[in-house]
Amino acid sequence: MNLRKLYVGLSVSMGLVVPSVALAEDIIDAPEVTIATAAENSGLYLRGDIGYAPWASDGDAAYRTYDAGTGTYGRMPFNGDRFGEPVSATLGLGYQINDMFRADLTGEYFDGRFDGDSRAVLPCAGEGAGTTCAIGTNADVTAYGLMANGYVDLGTLAGFTPYLGAGLGATNLRFSDVTQTSSCIDSLGVCAGGPSATASYNGYDSWRFTYALMAGVSYDVTDRLKLDLGYRYSHIGGGDMFGFGAETLAGATGAKGLDDGLGRHELRAGLRLSIW
Predict the structure, then answer these.
(1) pTM, whole model, 2 decimals?
(2) Closest C-alpha among 85, 93, 84, 98 to residue 49
C-alpha cells in the first residue's frame, strides 16, 4: 500500500472521530431537561369573594289563610314579591388537583329583605261590603350557606384562565319576625277611613338544598395570587317562611307563609391565594 495514501486516510479518519467524541461528551455534560407535570401545579388555596345579585327569581311565595268557622285553609299568592339587598360574601378553602381540575369548600353569607304584596277580594276586618283589602308583608332575611364546588380550568393564555364549575350544598334561610299590614281599598263600597291593621308572625329558619352553576375567568396576578371574575347562578330550595299568629288560638296549625325557592344571578369578584 502507498504510505502517502495510508497517512491521508488515517488523518481523515481521526478528523471524523475527534468531533464525534467531542459531540458525545457535550451530550453527556448537557444540563438535564425536565418537563413540568400537572402535579407541580397542585396545592391548597384560600379564596374570598364578594357577590352582587341584581336579578333574583323568587318563586311563587304565598301565605295560608284560616277560616275558624269551618276549620279550613285557603291559599293567598303574593301578586308581587322580591328579596332585596343582593350583596353576598364567601370564604373558602380549596385544592388545585392538577392544572385542569380544582375543588373547594365555601361558607357563604348574605342578608336582605323580603317584601310581598297581595290583595284579598274580601273586605279588611271592620270594613264594609264592596271594599277590598291590600296586604303588605315584610321581613328581614339572613342566609348562611355551605357549598362543595368543583371546577374545570380550560387552559391558560397570557395569564388568563377561563373555567366552568358547579356546586352542591345547603343554605340556612332565616326570616325575622314578619309584619303584615292590611289596608282598605275602595271598590264597589267605600272604606271607613280607619287606620291600617298590623299583625306580627314568628319567622322561621330552615336548612334548604342548594345548587350552583358557575363560569368565569381568573388572572395570574403573581405565581401564587389569582384574581377571579365570574358569574354564578344558585338556587335555594323552597320552605316555610313564617307561622300563624292569633289564628293559632282558633285552631290554625303549621306554617302560614311559604315560598317555592330563591334563584340568584350573581356577578362575583374575588381572590385565590396558594398557600402550599
Answers:
(1) 0.77
(2) 93
Sorted by sequence, the CB contacts under 8 Å of residue 206 that are 6+ apart come out as: 172, 173, 239, 240
Give per-residue pLDDT as tens, 58-103: 667 888 888 888 889 988 888 766 777 688 999 999 999 998 999 9
Cell for 162? 377561563
Query: Under 8 Å CB-to-CB from 194, ≥6 apart: which residues?
Result: 126, 127, 184
Domain range for 20 is 1-33
| One domain, residues 23 and 128 | no
Q: Domain count for the chain, please give it.
A: 2
- The set of cell numbers assigned to 224 is 401564587
Q: Which residues contact 169 (CB under 8 A, 6 or more apart)?
A: 145, 146, 147, 148, 210, 211, 212
**What is the amino acid identity at position 223?**
D
Which residues touch 258 (CB under 8 Å, ≥6 apart)? 61, 62, 63, 64, 238, 239, 240, 241
Q: In this structure, are 84 and 120 located in the same domain?
A: yes
What is the CATH number for 239? 2.40.160.20
